[in-house]
Amino acid sequence: MADQAPVAAAAPAASTPVAAEDAAARTVASLAISDAVPASTPAPEETPAAAAAADVPAHRSHDPANNAKRTDPFMFGQRFLTQEDDVFEYNAWDHVETDDAFKEYAEKQYELQRSAPVSDFDKSRFNSDPAKWWNMFYKNNTANFFKDRKWLHQEFPVLTEVCEPDAGPKTILEIGAGAGNTAFPILARNKNPLLRIHACDFSKTAVDVMRKDAAYDTKHMQADVWDAAGTGDDAMPPGLGPASVDVAILVFIFSALSPSQWKQAVENVARLVKPGGTVCFRDYGRGDLAQVRFRKGRYLEENFYIRGDGTRVYFFEKDELVRIWTGKAEDTEAPIAGDMDKEEDGSFANAENAEKTEAFFTEEDAPFTLENMGVDRRLIVNRAMKLKMYRCWLQGRFRRK
């Protein structure tokens, strides 16, 4: 599935945008430009070297001898933008709220998108056989489109635990495995002789790419075609039975499903994961630049779009996502960029989506409880062109009851 990077930690750069939408992405970015604020300078009595040693943490240092990126390229979540900072000093900043100019532009974009939705004919064409479009995607991009997700162990410590030499028999299921950019990094770090990784995708082409990879080791890994929203005999992937999975990984795959498939997908995952097992989750948040940049003719329904290559993508509200899996929203709400706007009568503009999720499960009947759900807001900077681009992802863990 389409890839992005981590939370409290954010991640490798986002996947390359569809060519037809590059210009729109650049336009959105340019609207967010602001005057750079000069960085703070050391006190007169300090030398620059002394000031750097005393005041600059490793992850913000430009000194090769003290630059964390040289020893830990996946240190995320610690670079906060303050009034004293020059926003264009670094390529990215963590946990940055969108500015008013971007929010205003985003709302105008949403209105334009709604005014020119995908035709009924194209809706049927794209929704009837989504695997066809992902097969074409992987045929064109093979294994070279996405970077390996080396940040997984940092973001989801349970993946380190099941890979320990004394962890015992453990089973990981990756849903929406694509070309193996999650499974292979896990396999490379594994020290558990009894670990099994089941990497599934509903694209046969993607599965073939994994099976042909030099790192594919059938002793520890099995790649299969499987639709996460399958029904009947197809509700479980080959080689796995009920309550057989210790950890399920869904990274940028849930967003590829139609809202009508969410409930079935959650039920399928629940059937596979052991009581007490973990679901590791990461996906797109509403207000992400990838959503805002969509032009006319891409809107399927609220927050749901078709990309230029025919693949689908949904952008989630935080509470909406939690409700889908647990039957209730978090007690403490933390709105994300572009969150639901109240109308004059007090109702929500996106109430239709909230109602969809409320109908899935009651809190008592829901198969999962929430461990954590975070909002990863990143400000990506093009320093050469003085552009700012706002990204938003959701990342969390669910526990099987």
Concise synopsis of the structure shown:
By secondary structure, this protein is α/β, with parallel strands linked by helices.
What is the strand and helix layout of this fold?
Blueprint: H1 22-30, H2 48-55, E1 92-94, H3 100-115, H4 120-128, H5 130-141, H6 152-155, H7 158-161, E2 170-175, H8 183-189, E3 195-201, H9 204-212, E4 221-225, E5 245-251, H10 262-272, E6 273-284, H11 289-292, E7 299-301, E8 304-306, E9 312-314, H12 318-326, H13 351-358, E10 368-382, E11 387-400
Helix pairs in contact: 5-9, 12-13
Keywords: Methyltransferase, Transferase
Enzyme class: transferase
Organism: Sporothrix curviconia
Notes on the protein architecture:
With 401 residues, this protein is α/β, with parallel strands linked by helices. The chain has a domain at 117-373: Vaccinia Virus protein VP39 (Rossmann fold). Helix content is 27%, strand content 19%. The protein is built from 13 helices and 11 strands. The strands form 2 sheets. An 8-stranded mixed sheet has the order 1-10-11-6-5-2-3-4. Helix 5 packs parallel to helix 9 (204-212). The protein is globular. Mean pLDDT is 80; it is low at 4-53, 69-76 and 332-352.
What do the pLDDT scores average to? 80
Strand order of the largest sheet: 1-10-11-6-5-2-3-4
CATH architecture of the domain at 117-373: 3-Layer(aba) Sandwich
The 3D shape can be described as globular
DSSP helix fraction: 25-40%
Care to count the β-strands?
Answer: 11
Cα-atom radius of gyration? 22 Å
Strand content of the residues, in percent? 15-25%
From the 3D structure, determine the CATH topology of the domain at 117-373: Rossmann fold
